[in-house]
Design goal:
This protein is about 40% helix and about 25% strand. It is of the alpha+beta class and about 350 residues long. Strand 3 and strand 4 form a beta hairpin. It binds adenosine-5'-triphosphate and magnesium ion.
């Protein structure tokens, strides 16, 4: 448009109606005399005309603390859904007020997510120290327990000591599991993986057997593998722990670990004849924070899957409701220069 052309006349009403913010105008008695479509949409009402402002936006007038007047209000829409709105009000010379407001639900969600992530980050930062503080005395306890067992004659006391030691080892594995979050499964150092699988299984086996669940550990002798033993222990721990939760007395849990495809892949499978998963649970079970358990965190399978995928492998989950579940991790292990165990 050249400067010589007259400006196009735009109706003020059309401008207010086109605003992305919600706008209402009230008279000196607090009655709404003008409202744009966005205001009706945020408050979920077909019309706002004639309503009193405190009926839709809470107590009015606002305390005269700032200019323009600002406030954050929790309003309840006619269908009962709550909304947090941020509003600013300015007096109109000659009488009445214009109030501009917006739905803060999205900002609220972002704020909540930010706070959650900050809390997680704080926990993450403190975690290595906490683990260290817990693991050292635990290692001392386990060592002392092992010596005591050797010095004790078979019988009731030794059985109790075995039970205490079993729980202490389970705790150590649990802590290993926490500590291995974010640690790589692939390792430049060749480690004893068959032993790691058997150890982790043995600790949980006791608990499973006590609950009447049969167990079988089918782990072949393996050469040293370029995998992090602590992460493998945590994987077995998570998978078998889940299997125990899914099983009741009379069910069975089997662990298989072996090399396949000419020794190029390490395969770890946990099969249970427990409750199985529905189609929906199966589709979401490896999602972070997805859990169907009352006290579950939904971290176990997500961490296992991430570790396997990061190592270039894949995690397959098969499950039939009422029949059981089989979870297999396949991880490539470099074939070259693999020393014997
Ligand atoms: N062997 C299984 N049999 C049946 N359902 C399973 C099995 N393993 C996992 N699930 C389902 O997948 C969900 C996610 O498992 P995941 O291990 O990630 O979390 P969780 O066990 O609920 O909690 P946690 O983080 O404490 O392990 C479980 O809540 C459960 O519904
Ligand atoms: Mg779990």
């Amino acid at each position: 448009m050249s400067s010589s052309e007259p400006p196009v006349a735009i109706d003020d009403v059309a401008i207010v109606d086109a605003l992305p913010a919600a706008v209402v105008v009230i008279d000196d008695h607090g009655t709404i005399i003008r409202a744009n479509p966005r205001a009706c949409e945020v408050l979920d009402r077909p019309t706002l005309l004639g309503l009193s402002i405190h009926a839709v936006l809470g107590p009015w007038p606002l305390p005269p603390l700032a200019e323009p007047l600002r406030a954050e209000r929790n309003v309840v829409r006619p269908d009962g859904t709550p909304r947090t709105v941020g509003l600013a009000a300015s007096p109109i010379p000659g009488g009445g007020m214009v109030i501009v407001f917006q739905d803060l639900a999205r900002w609220q969600r972002l704020r909540d997510e930010r706070d959650r992530l900050m809390r997680l980050a704080m926990v993450g930062e403190a975690l290595p120290t906490i683990l260290h503080e817990l693991k050292n005395p635990l290692a001392a306890l386990i060592a002392a327990g092992e010596i005591l067992i050797e010095d004790t004659a078979p019988g009731a006391v030794q059985d109790q000591l075995h039970a205490i030691l079993g729980e202490a080892r389970r705790l150590r594995l649990g802590l290993d599991g926490i500590g291995s979050v974010g640690r790589a499964l692939a390792s430049p150092r060749y480690q004893v993986i068959d032993q790691a699988c058997r150890e982790a299984f043995k600790v949980l086996e006791l608990r499973a057997n006590r609950a009447g669940i049969a167990t079988r550990c089918d782990v072949r002798d393996l050469p040293l593998l370029p995998l992090e033993a602590a992460v493998v222990r945590a994987m077995v721990f998570n998978l078998v722990n889940n299997a125990i939760h899914a099983c009741s007395a009379g069910a069975a849990i089997n662990l298989h670990a072996r090399l396949v495809e000419d020794g190029r892949w390490f395969e770890l499978t946990v099969v249970d004849t427990g409750a199985g998963m529905t189609h929906d649970v199966l589709a979401r079970c490896t999602e972070l924070f997805y859990s169907t358990k009352r006290n579950g965190s939904g971290i176990g399978l997500a961490v296992v899957r991430q570790a396997v995928v990061d190592a270039g492998g894949r995690l397959d989950v098969e499950s039939v409701p009422g029949f059981g579940t089989g979870i297999t991790a396949r991880i490539p292990v470099a074939p070259a220069a693999r020393p014997a165990a």
